[in-house]
């Protein structure tokens, strides 16, 4: 019996195909992964983050983008971050693919928590311009920042008990009350 290998797409073929699709797909090393729809709470937190970050970067030459913008990592990966900020001139001139974010934020869902904290974070760490990766869990209201220092080492900063989300790479702050506005408080244990 002959077993046929599954065809592997190259980056250019994926981008050409993806631009024709009504749904979003991520791409890693030739494999394509369909993106699932988000829960209401996810969309509310993403919207709150974008609004808070947009106010902070206004007039700075940086821009905030959302989950419909493609982020290319190396020659083998395209992801859709929930929110990212770029100040890179090439990124600010592109229409389709971004490559140099300063900040990436993922809002966790029960189905994506392991991926966002594991493989996806490992992929993001390959981006030389990335200074900070935020992980926001709207269900538990946990907020963690992974920050890269000048030596390239990553350190975690847990802001879950804080009243303010600090975005160090932008010297910005968003009150947690604004971040979670419209999200029901978690049940008291």
UniProtKB/TrEMBL annotation:
<protein>
    <recommendedName>
        <fullName>Putative restriction endonuclease domain-containing protein</fullName>
    </recommendedName>
</protein>
<dbReference type="Pfam" id="PF05685">
    <property type="entry name" value="Uma2"/>
</dbReference>
<feature type="domain" description="Putative restriction endonuclease">
    <location>
        <begin position="11"/>
        <end position="167"/>
    </location>
</feature>
<dbReference type="InterPro" id="IPR011335">
    <property type="entry name" value="Restrct_endonuc-II-like"/>
</dbReference>
<dbReference type="InterPro" id="IPR008538">
    <property type="entry name" value="Uma2"/>
</dbReference>
<dbReference type="InterPro" id="IPR012296">
    <property type="entry name" value="Nuclease_put_TT1808"/>
</dbReference>
